[in-house]
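Thread: sanity check for a docking pose with fe (ii) ion

Original post by kr_44:
Hi all, I'm comparing my docking run against an independent structure prediction. Below are the sequence and the ligand SMILES. Could someone generate the full complex and paste the structure tokens? I mainly care about where the ligand ends up relative to the chain.
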Amino acid sequence: MTDTFSPVATDNDDARTASVPQQPAEGELRPYTAILLASFGGPEGQDHVIPFLRNVTRGKGIPDERLEEVATHYRANDGVSPINQQNRDLIAALETELAGREIDLPIYWGNRNWDPYFADAFKQLAADGHQDVLVLVTSAYAGYSSNDQYLEDFERTLAETGLKGQLNLVKVRQFFYDKAFTRPNEEFLAAGVQDVRSQLAGAGRPDGKIKVLFVTHSIPTAVAQRQGPARIKELFGTDVYTAQHQAIADYLMGAVAEAEGIDYQVVFQSRSGSPETPWLEPDINDQIEEDAAAGYAGVVVMPFGFISDHMEVIWDLDTEAKETAQEQGLAFHRAPTVGTHPEFISGLVDIMGEYIAGEGGQPLASGEQTVPGDWSDLTTEGGWDTPL
Ligand SMILES: CC1=C(CCC(=O)O)c2cc3nc(cc4[nH]c(cc5[nH]c(cc1n2)c(C)c5CCC(=O)O)c(CCC(=O)O)c4C)C(CCC(=O)O)=C3C
Ligand SMILES: [Fe+2]
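Reply from moderator J.T.:
Ran it for you. Here is the predicted complex with fe (ii) ion included:
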């Protein structure tokens, strides 16, 4: 463990056990008539790759060399990102769960960076007569790319489509600390440790030391440092983006019997930008090399920053990190992401139930916070110190 990522003890237990935030007050519960799944989007053919990458990086100062490099990841997969099919599968699974609970809400789909775009989804929602729409974003954590940028996209798209005032969009709260997200990850962690143990036993190294690497997307350090609130920074002794991940890593390691006594660390992947700009570190590949030098025999890689096995998972982990581990002679297991795991699907519908008013305006069901902490207002009150 490096100092930066060691769990921080706190003498302020109250602050870590406050109630689940961001539920609408009773009087604010609205009769939603539709759900919108809002996601990143991805190319579905070779001729989509460059226009998609230009959409993602517009105004972000990403050098052309980086785009060319990332384009090769998509090209190697016929220009197709798996993310769109994963979102279609997610919608189908949610539809089945909703139907099973007799909740009659259609699910629409829109993306930030590729077809179907938010504008198309908004226009379709309006054309079909919807006004109050519950929006589920495919990111578990709060951060600029995973939360705030979506809210900015929605505002801009409402203005551009002339639907401001006509569509009322309410975004479902972050869910990284909810059972929907943590239960499947507990299962993946247990299975990952068991797999690396048996790989090592098979290689005649039953006592080989294992490390769990919890991996998430790197972001520019300056962006991470702008996020509030101060109370989380103080509690964890790090930026709020890292703190969210550290809290889940600490929780999972404590909740899973198979992981007892095993070392672990939060690491980062998919660094972008220009080389001079600092991004959150350590990079997973650097850490694997360091761990090999430090005498570890195997790594369990938990891609808990993501909810599906999209391109950044299959390329940066299944291709690059795996290769690094092989070069270093380490046993390697890449755990799955929550995808359409039944507990993720039912848990998401429980969370949406907090917003979907039933008889008498009461929520239909409630999510369950498994990870202690007051995770309210991660980017709003006391949030971004300055606009980006
Ligand atoms: C925090 C975070 C998440 C997790 C939260 C969430 O899920 O939202 C995430 C997810 C994703 N990122 C993805 C793809 C890309 N991200 C890029 C670039 C960037 N990501 C950033 C951050 C994040 N990204 C940032 C700060 C940049 C720099 C440019 C900018 O400030 O916006 C680039 C440009 C090329 C490059 O530089 O890599 C691509 C192609 C895909 C789709 C994969 C597929 O196609 O299957 C997904 C789900
Ligand atoms: Fe990204």
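The longest helix spans residues 179-202. Hope that helps with the comparison, let us know if your pose agrees.
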